[in-house]
Amino acid sequence: MGDRGGAGGSRRRRTGSRHSSQAAEEEARDAPAGPDVGAGGDAPPPDPDQPRVAAVGSSPRELSCHRLQESLFSSDSGFSNYRGILNWCVVMLILSNARLFLENLIKYGILVDPIQVVSLFLRDPYSWPALCLLIVANVFALATLQVEKRLAVGALTEQVGLLLHAANLATILCLPAAVAFLVDSITPVGSMLALWVYTILFLKLFSYRDVNLWCRELRAGARADKPANGAAAQRSVSYPDNLTYGDLYYFLFAPTLCYELNFPRSPRIRKRFLLRRLLEMLFLTQLQVGLIQQWMVPTIQNSMKPFKDMDYSRIIERLLKLAVPNHFIWLIFFYWLFHSCLNVVAELMRFGDREFYRDWWNSESVSYFWQNWNIPVHKWCIRHFYKPMLRCGVSKWVARTGVFLASAFFHEYLVSIPLRMFRLWAFTGMMVQIPLAWVTSRFFLGNYGNAVVWLTLIIGQPVAVLMYVHDYYVLHHEVAPAGA
Ligand SMILES: CC(C)(COP(=O)(O)OP(=O)(O)OC[C@H]1O[C@@H](n2cnc3c(N)ncnc32)[C@H](O)[C@@H]1OP(=O)(O)O)[C@@H](O)C(=O)NCCC(=O)NCCS
């Protein structure tokens, strides 16, 4: 699909994949044969019969037609163009999923219900605790700005400032957790959303405080005429002129967790780009909701009985069945969040740095995956946690374990509190990444490493999902299977 190279293209690729001596020999022999041979890859494919006619006319009969060469599938052949096979995989994938889609429709009918989504956010139409939490979040941001303003003019000592920031940041984590536990009208999805926003706020204000502290340290060390921000000479803002409401709120809404005084800005808002990302965002939101309701929920509901009966072979069968929709939804979620949503926000704010993800799909090790799939979080971890620990003389191994511990804490925080149960599956899932990273880098290299990374993504997540859903059902509901 999509291969416009035609006959000339495939001939060129075949030639390129042989040993160089054979290729040279062949090129020498074929040289007078016609315009297809050579580097001119863009030349139109010639009439296949034309060169042969010329060759037959001018040279003796072909006494030999064999040469020393490997079969294409042998690794010694050097052949690496499996594009056609990749296309075959895509066609097979579409066909097998079309069958699954039909099977699902025949079995369950249409389960997609947009109205049901509203009930996930609201239990009592007169009580909106999650929304109230989002509004209250402004208080913490403004408190941070006030502390920073006073620190900038020396009205507070650094120790008092540190104490106030620590209290503010601790409250940011505790308040939504307390509301999620104590207020009955908040739904699990509503409290997950509030906790997610508060976690982002925590990471952003942590970064804001760090960068302003670094600016003060630079200012203290610099001569009076030198700007505090290292590269600020030609830039617009230097410390402490950045301590304004506008600057703070720009950072709070910008698609990054790392603060800086002068963010790179794009020259203008590209309307067509923005419209495309917006349409993607809306379409993929619907698609995710539809796939969850139509595909994941019945599969999960049908997994409860095997779990209850401890029927291991059925549990594994259910797990593998859940792995497919779970993985699709996760891939869609990745594109939706990191490409569509973050680009929409960045485009609207003319935020220039669009590196929200790198090529994690080529990961040949678990470490590479964590360095590349979620760049805003990874950047924050490196800048505000990992490097400061290294600078304090902590070993790399301890610093890495520290980062994964913090990440495991936040993953558990975002799942356990909304569900009001502590099972540590998410925490364990993150902590397991450290030995897994060691094992993959030690025993699985190249394509094998890549396959292991995909396998852990495809199988690891549904295990955690099933564990939580099972425990939640056991705690809150009677099991009611939705079909066979
Ligand atoms: C733990 C983690 C931060 C390690 O990252 P890493 O890239 O493997 O770490 P490295 O040792 O290669 O070094 C990273 C940086 O520290 C720098 N560094 C290394 N040793 C250093 C030292 N002694 N002093 C100062 N800097 C040092 C490196 O130069 C590199 O800098 P760069 O990013 O500017 O190139 C990363 O795996 C991670 O982000 N994990 C958590 C991810 C996560 O939880 N994501 C959640 C997504 S939902």
From TrEMBL:
Q: What biological processes does GO assign it?
A: triglyceride biosynthetic process
Q: Which GO terms describe its cellular component?
A: endoplasmic reticulum membrane
**Domain of life the protein comes from:** Eukaryota
Q: Where is this region: Disordered?
A: 1-56
Q: Which UniProt keywords apply?
A: Acyltransferase, Endoplasmic reticulum, Membrane, Transferase, Transmembrane, Transmembrane helix
Q: Carries keyword Acyltransferase?
A: yes
Q: Has keyword Calcium?
A: no
Indicate the transmembrane segments per the record: 126-148, 160-183, 189-206, 278-297, 328-349, 397-415, 421-439, 451-469
Annotated coiled-coil positions are none
Extract the GO molecular function terms from the UniProt entry.
diacylglycerol O-acyltransferase activity; retinol O-fatty-acyltransferase activity
Q: What is its main location?
A: endoplasmic reticulum
Q: Which residues form the active site?
A: H411
One short Pfam name that applies is MBOAT
Provide the protein's localization.
Endoplasmic reticulum membrane
Catalytic activity reads: 1,2-di-(9Z-octadecenoyl)-sn-glycerol + hexadecanoyl-CoA = 1,2-di-(9Z)-octadecenoyl-3-hexadecanoyl-sn-glycerol + CoA; 2-(9Z-octadecenoyl)-glycerol + hexadecanoyl-CoA = 1-hexadecanoyl-2-(9Z-octadecenoyl)-sn-glycerol + CoA; hexadecan-1-ol + hexadecanoyl-CoA = hexadecyl hexadecanoate + CoA; hexadecane-1,2-diol + hexadecanoyl-CoA = 2-hydroxyhexadecyl hexadecanoate + CoA
Pathway, per record: Lipid metabolism; glycerolipid metabolism
Q: How does it sit in the membrane?
A: Multi-pass membrane protein
* Oligomeric and partner information: Homodimer or homotetramer; both forms have similar enzymatic activities.
Describe the family membership recorded for this protein in Swiss-Prot or TrEMBL: Belongs to the membrane-bound acyltransferase family. Sterol o-acyltransferase subfamily.
Q: Which PANTHER family match?
A: DIACYLGLYCEROL O-ACYLTRANSFERASE 1 (PTHR10408:SF7), STEROL O-ACYLTRANSFERASE (PTHR10408)
Put simply, this protein is called: O-acyltransferase
Name the encoding gene, please.
Answer: DGAT1
